[in-house]
Model the fold of this input.
Amino acid sequence: MATSKKRSRTHSQKQLLNRFRISLSLFLVIAGAVLLSVSYKEKFDSSSNQISGNSDNGIVNEHKLKPSKLYIPTLNKSLDVYDGSFEKNRWVVSQKGVSFLTSSATPGEEGNAVMYGHNRKSILGDLKNIKKDEYILVILSDQSVVRYKVSDTKEIQPTQVEILNQTKDATLTIYTCSGYLDESRYVVIAK
Done:
């Protein structure tokens, strides 16, 4: 009988030890995820600080014509376009469509027209499926259409803000988050 109690106590101690190990493991995983997200947020905020100087790029912020739709035929995707900006170290991002960086060039005119959006299936989640030489259309507020041909696609780090720089030709830059925990950016450049 003493052996049975001893086995029962040993079995209970093992169960308690296993529960403790599982709890400790879960705690460490959650703590690691929190630390990663805080580190990622700080990295993104510090890289975004480099962007805030972009408003002084020779582009007038008052657009006579604004993009109203972004149409990507190969993805069978037509997205509404909303004003976007970089304010108080934060990107203003539409929850319903793509955002047009209002400090960038007007689509179809000389310079870099920048659009960005969330990596959701309903928005730009399938942006990686666009290939070089495919066409992208931007419909402007006067219903005119600007046609771009994809010249490059790439994945970059959030600190690589040169994709926002102005160009000497009519360029369209579209990007969204990508990678594990959205640590990268997927970029499509069209001319």
Q: What stands out?
A: The longest helix spans residues 2-49. The radius of gyration is 24 Å. The mean pLDDT is 82.
